[in-house]
Specification:
Helices cover 34% and strands 18% of the residues. It is an alpha/beta fold and 425 residues long. The protein has 2 domains: 5-254, Thiolase/Chalcone synthase (Peroxisomal Thiolase, Chain A, domain 1); 265-419, Thiolase/Chalcone synthase (Peroxisomal Thiolase, Chain A, domain 1), CATH 3.40.47.10. Strands 5-4-6-7-1-8-14-13-9-10 form a 10-stranded mixed beta sheet, sandwiched between helices. Residues 2-420 form the Ketosynthase family 3 (KS3) domain. It comes from Gillisia hiemivivida.
Length: 425
Amino acid sequence: MEKRVVITGLGICAPNGTSIPQFEKALRTGKSGITFHPQLKELNFSCQIGGKPSISEEKLSEYFTPLQRRGLNSSGIVYGVVSGTDAFIDAGLEIAENASPDWDTGIIFGTGILGVDKFREAIHLIDAGKTRRLGSTSVIQTMASGISAYLGGILGCGNQVTTNSSACTTGTEALLMGYERIKAGKAKRMLVGSCGDHGPYIWGGFDAMRILPGNYNDNPEEASRPMSAKASGFVPGSGAGALILEDLESALERGAKIYAEVLGGEVNSGGQRGEGSMTAANNEAVQRCITGALINSSISAAEIDSINGHLTATSKDSVEIENWVKALHLENDFPYINSLKGMTGHCLSASGSIECVASVLQLDKGFIFPNINCEEIHPDILDLISEERIPRKTIEKPINILAKASFGFGDVNAVVIFKKYNYVC
């Protein structure tokens, strides 16, 4: 018998909040975490702004031992460990301290490019003939699965511990992978999420592609403008989000707080055919992903109360809205839709998980956060849906079902359906 899967823990390390209470407050008030980065100006970047979580040295010492911190030079691992550990604690789980791991709990924690600063440090040492000065952690900080390895050791997880990587779809895909494992009865709990490094060596390629805004360096908080007529490109970001998924039976036995239920979802690819390419989505694939998520979740389009879109603040925003309209067939009764990227920028491989945390908070607390920097909605979008469906102020409103989407480079897609958990069902 297939297991029902619920969410019992949340952790966040976002540009506009590094704890769940702080992040929720930022969502409700529309607070931006995008700032000016002097280093990017020194390196002649066109876009000199970005979203970067603020982690104090004092806070770092709460998550890493002095030995673990020695030579630690990967912001993605830091963000992932902070958010992952917080989600574990938030779920009321105890870190395995004895010789035996927790065989029922696993990890799927994704990333894109990990440990670039450590790579750079290693390259300089190797080229200088100083290989022995690399230190013992250079490999674990630069291998893709370094984040899940760090978390697995810190938390003592004995079920599947692995890493996925699917560009901007990574975090949402990780959640669905963990969901499927629990649903099949192969684990009781899975820590899922994703992380991403910050800085010029991550963001430089996007600046070279001329898809980042270069005209907001003096007012960074206004730069990321999803669905706006004045959108001029996405702002790069970084961070991590984490969620504890759990078998409903296990959660009830523990008396755990249940934030929401995962009804199902869909992952697919457009094969870089048709309109699809390495950097653009195949629209038919996006629509199939949306409808597949509805079928797999056993719901109708009319039951969706709100959508948290991918919506990156580029010319593709109106195309995404058109895909939602065609897939849902709800031109006259379209759900509310919002994008977190106005507040955080596009956190790349971390975006899906950070936005999933934001989606779950809206369900749990009964509100819809605003689309900031969207005073003037793009006219192509207004040809598709009504202006009222794009809230510019926080709406205090109970939500029952929310759809979350992520679409990534490589023409890959993921949509997950969350539902407010009903304790009497």
